[in-house]
Amino acid sequence: MPRVLRIAAAQQGPNLENDSRQVIVARLLEMMKQAKADNCDLVVFTETALTTFFPRFYADDRAEMDPWFERDMPNDATRPLFDFASENKIGFSLGYAELTPEGRHFNTQILVDKDAKIVGKYRKVHLPGHAEYEDRRAFQHLEKRYFEPGDLGFPVWRTMGGVMGMCICNDRRWPETYRVMGLQGVELVMLGYNTPSLNGLGGTDTPEIRMHHNHLSMQAGAYQNATWVVGVAKAGEEAPGYHLMGGSCIVDPDGRIVARAETEDDELVIHDCDLDTCKFLKQSTFDFAAHRRTEHYGPIVEQTGATPPPE
Ligand code: CDT
């Protein structure tokens, strides 16, 4: 039986500070409807899809940020997505800020199957930015203040005919992210991102080079682990001077971008992803069991910073 999943990367235009969850979910639902009309099996939404990217705001008391978090999933605001999924047999993946009953804060993404059952949950491991206000920045990126690092690792799930995993935004830049899922036979990695077009610290990188880094990391992760990767942006100006890159794309297991967003608005990027095309590289160049040399990989888990030899 062919294992072709028709996947829609649901890029979002900006979520403004005062946009309600209801207004934003209506946009997501509209994209789900378009995806269903185009016979898609699965819709991938972005990171913090339900709100503006609030880590650019500073609050002395971090509890002031709690209104940006979801305490339940589904909840009243997101139930229309779950209802549409079960009535129309379409899966989806959704990023949001999670506040647990124990009071813990995570940057989270879920995977929902065609019966609207949450089959997978991932909590962002690599939190970029900083924990304290920094004057030198053009804008703040306070993920380290408002979230704790994910505690679930990088699991994968067998669902909808394939082996699927998730990561979130900055995770896509780290080869370890993909490799841990690659070692579990992943065939599809879904991720959302909110990535400023400028880094806020000055420096020499341009929007073009930052877009290059965005695609390069997903293409490398896809090829080196022989997996599909779907990367979904929240794009455009969420606030004056705060521009997020677009470039949502679907990458095949050879590392090629096979579909790419053309706008910085709500836009579906659709491709028929044949999960069986993962097999060739998994059984040849990246037959991990045959070729990996773990006796030389110790530093990867034993140290974080680089230690160059003495001068
Ligand atoms: N959301 C997220 O992880 N964004 C980061 C930008 C960090 S800039 C301090 C990214 O890696 O795209």
Describe this structure in words.
- With 311 residues, this protein is an alpha/beta fold.
- It has helices at 21-37, 79-88, 143-146, 175-182, 207-225, 279-283, 288-291, 298-302, and strands at residues 4-11, 42-44, 91-99, 105-112, 118-123, 156-159, 162-168, 188-193, 228-233, 236-239, 242-244, 249-251, 257-260, 267-274.
- It has a single domain (4-291), classed as Nitrilase/N-carbamoyl-D-aminoacid amidohydrolase (4-Layer Sandwich).
- A hairpin with a 2-residue loop joins strand 10 and strand 11.
- It starts with a strand and ends in a 9-residue tail after the last helix.
Strand order of the largest sheet: 5-4-3-2-1-14
- Under CATH, the topology can be stated as Nitrilase/N-carbamoyl-D-aminoacid amidohydrolase
The number of helices is: 8
Q: What percent of residues adopt helix (DSSP H or I)?
A: 10-25%
Q: Can you lay out the helices and strands and say which pair or pack?
A:
Elements (H helix, E strand, L loop, with lengths): L3 E8 L9 H17 L4 E3 L34 H10 L2 E9 L5 E8 L5 E6 L19 H4 L9 E4 L2 E7 L6 H8 L5 E6 L13 H19 L2 E6 L2 E4 L2 E3 L4 E3 L5 E4 L6 E8 L4 H5 L4 H4 L6 H5 L9
Bound molecules: 4-methylsulfanyl-2-ureido-butyric acid.
